Automatic annotation (TrEMBL):
Protein name in UniProt: Alpha-ketoglutarate-dependent dioxygenase AlkB
Cofactor(s) needed for function: Fe(2+)
Domain called Fe2OG dioxygenase: residue spans: 113-216
Keyword tRNA processing: no
Keywords of this entry: Dioxygenase, Iron, Metal-binding, Oxidoreductase
A Pfam family annotated for this UniProt entry: 2OG-FeII_Oxy_2
GO molecular function: dioxygenase activity
The UniProt record lists the keyword Iron: yes
């Protein structure tokens, strides 16, 4: 297919849109570099511990608000107690462009102000079970980006974690947005395809996934003063 012809957008379910090859290689490179920085700190990337003692196979670091099962906080009490990195304005703008591309709705795009992102790193074995994203106070759409290895993204229904679902192949640069009637659909990643990513993104192996959301929370206390600033 000619590079000049935009690839079609696929509606997987009402409000759930897949846009293949949305990010340029340069944008993917910049995302990889930004995520590398966040993975190093102030809260290092880690396998999230689950309340019943398990650990997730995916590694996750958050910006804006820290997610741990099943709430958002400003500080990472389950990691090192540090405050998470701020949500950068350039990522707000990227989120708005994503919503505009997915829904072709300027008003919805302009109103979209993501304030948290989960950055997930999958090695060849990592998977994510079927779940709903429902710890946010807002029902604004979730914007998901893939860089690196492809995966099978299973997009289901709002009622059960089982069928009916659609298996979507998400490749490097792809955008997936789910909002509206699909905002609370169950979804998961049953399989990553090792070796399918282009090392030119800066990611030698594995799959990077960034999901932006609107946590919709307000701070009840001011940020702790920096050491020495009292
Ligand atoms: O890796 C993905 O594509 C999905 C990630 C996800 O569902 C989540 O972080 O809640
Ligand atoms: Fe999710």
């Amino acid at each position: 297919m000619s590079a000049l012809i935009p690839r079609p957008v696929t509606q997987v379910a009402p409000g759930a849109v897949h846009v293949p090859n949305w990010l340029t290689l340069e944008e993917q490179r910049r995302l990889v570099a930004a995520c590398r920085g966040w993975a190093a700190g102030p809260v290092p990337i880690r396998h999230t511990r689950l309340p019943r003692g398990g650990v997730m196979s995916v590694q996750t670091v958050c910006v804006g608000w820290h997610w741990q099962p099943y709430r958002y906080t400003r500080t990472a009490g389950d990691v090192n107690g540090a405050r998470v990195a701020p949500f950068p304005h350039w990522m707000v703008l990227l989120g708005r462009r994503a919503v505009l591309r997915a829904y072709d709705d300027r008003e919805a795009a302009d109103a979209y102000t993501p304030d948290t992102a989960l950055i997930n790193f999958y090695d060849g074995q990592a998977t994510m079970g079927m779940h709903q994203d429902k710890d946010e106070e807002s029902s604004a759409p979730v914007v998901s980006l893939t860089v690196g290895d492809s995966c099978v993204f299973r997009f289901g229904n709002t009622e059960t974690r089982t069928r009916p679902y659609t298996d979507v192949e998400l490749a490097s640069g792809d955008l997936f947005v789910f909002g509206g009637p699909s905002r609370y659909a169950y979804h998961g990643v049953p399989k990553v395809r090792p070796g399918t990513g282009d090392p030119a993104t800066g990611l030698r192996s594995g799959r990077l996934n960034i999901t932006m959301r609107v946590a919709g929370l307000t701070d009840t206390w001011p940020a702790p003063a920096a050491a020495g600033a009292r």
